[in-house]
Automatic annotation (TrEMBL):
Location in or out of the cell: Membrane
Protein name, per record: Major facilitator superfamily (MFS) profile domain-containing protein
Originating organism: Ferroplasma acidarmanus Fer1
Keywords associated with the record: Membrane, Transmembrane, Transmembrane helix, Transport
Gene Ontology CC entries for this record: membrane
Domain Major facilitator superfamily (MFS) profile: start-end pairs: 4-408
């Protein structure tokens, strides 16, 4: 089952960041945007996804608590598959703005839904590795996306290559609907592949965990808990750095290394590969030691140091790229460690609502990051200022998480 959610998140993340490869291939000048403002317009297009993404979060996760994931995920994957395919045919900026906004609405239930789903299927001792495997989909999607886009741009060139990229990845999302419907089971009580004793043992362990959680309060009050508000801020700054990095990764590499879109797509695999390897070791360490809060802070500080040194050493492309790659360890590995905190401190219904709030409002950072990086590039004609900006966001997130009270 964890393999299924991992695969689904690979497809989900591909559809989120395929815009990054299209940007580096000149998508926005191709649809009539002047090169002088293309990066800012691209940043706004990326941001609109996250503005829409925040809208239905709390209520969709509460609904998942009642009906399970298959129906909601099936509708979501169908919608965003169609939207992504249509994106391959856009002709102007209003069309891409509208499609990215609708795509954000369509994808809203997925990530928070899976985080809640993990709390239903995995006990505390297993959840860290389960989260690690699931969130490893981000660097895996980055690796696959870099190879796919690089190959498409090599064969079809930048244009119409970026159009084929959207069409192919939209088709993959539609295929995923069949897979999730066959493979996923909403709740342990419905699992036909477990015997009655196994189901009872799992539900008993989860019930005991529920009774021992730190915050036993109704979901509406949980939303006002200081820790929930603080975690929302931490997630906001972390996601700001994450999507500032992932949306502009191929473009930053292309700018720093002076290579074309195909080459920058292939090179963008290197940070993702490093992050994927680091992620497994970090989560195993997290489950052994159990100190989620301090480890999350350390991860953010790694991102801060890597990004800051990368920007500072821009005159040496090899050193800059090396530290830019190191920063990926922090950028892409904080998610599974971070999400253990609300999963382990809140009871079931409170967890569903709080995860929705944290994910929804926190993901507004995905609107800020791309605009900040793209806007600074438009003003300064360099990505250096944007990389420093991402470093600052990671530093703030690392400091704030240390003030969370209810955490292992």
């Amino acid at each position: 089952m964890n393999y299924a959610t991992h695969y689904l998140y690979v497809i989900n993340f591909l559809d989120r960041v395929n815009l990054s490869y299209a940007i580096s291939a000149g998508m926005f000048p191709d649809i009539g945007v002047p090169k002088s403002s293309a990066d800012l317009i691209a940043g706004i297009a990326s941001a609109l996804f996250f503005v829409a993404y925040a809208i239905p979060q709390v209520f969709t996760t509460l609904r998942i608590n009642k009906v399970g994931v298959r129906k909601i995920f099936g509708i979501a994957f169908t919608a965003w598959g169609i939207i992504t395919i249509i994106t391959g045919f856009v002709q102007n900026v209003p069309e891409i703005y509208a499609l990215r906004f609708i795509l954000g609405l369509a994808e809203a239930p997925f990530y928070a839904g899976v985080m809640f789903f993990m709390g239903v299927w995995f006990v505390e001792s297993e959840r860290g590795v389960a989260n690690a495997f699931f969130n490893a989909a981000i660097p895996v999607a980055g690796i696959f996306g870099g190879l796919l886009s690089g190959e498409i741009f090599t064969v079809y060139h930048d244009n119409p290559g970026w159009r084929y990229l959207f069409i192919i990845e939209g088709i993959l999302a539609l295929i995923s609907v069949v897979i999730l419907w066959i493979v996923l089971t909403d709740f342990p009580s419905q699992a036909k592949w477990m015997n009655k004793d196994e189901i009872n043992a799992l539900e008993s362990d989860l019930d005991i965990e529920q009774k021992n959680k730190a915050l036993k309060i109704p979901w509406k009050k949980a939303l006002m808990e200081p820790d929930v508000i603080l975690l929302t801020l931490v997630y906001f700054f972390g996601v700001t750095a994450l999507y500032g990095y992932s949306i502009w990764l191929p473009s930053i590499i292309g700018s720093f290394a002076h290579v074309n879109a195909a080459s920058s797509s292939f090179l963008s695999d290197i940070p993702y590969i490093v992050a994927a390897i680091a992620l497994i070791f970090i989560l195993r360490y997290s489950d052994r030691k159990g100190d989620r809060k301090k480890l999350t802070a350390i991860i953010f500080f790694i991102a801060f140091i890597g990004l800051a040194i990368s920007a500072f050493s821009i005159s040496n492309v090899y050193v800059s790229f090396a530290f830019f790659t190191i920063s990926a360890i922090g950028i892409f590995t904080f998610l599974p460690v971070f999400w253990n905190i609300p999963q382990e401190s809140l009871t079931k219904e409170s967890s569903a609502a709080s995860i929705g709030l944290i994910n929804g409002l926190g993901n507004l950072g995905g609107a800020v990051g791309p605009i900040v990086v793209g806007g600074l590039e438009t003003v300064t004609h360099s990505f250096v200022a944007g990389v420093y900006g991402m470093a600052l966001f990671a530093l703030v997130a690392g400091i704030l998480v240390l003030f969370v009270k209810h955490s292992r």
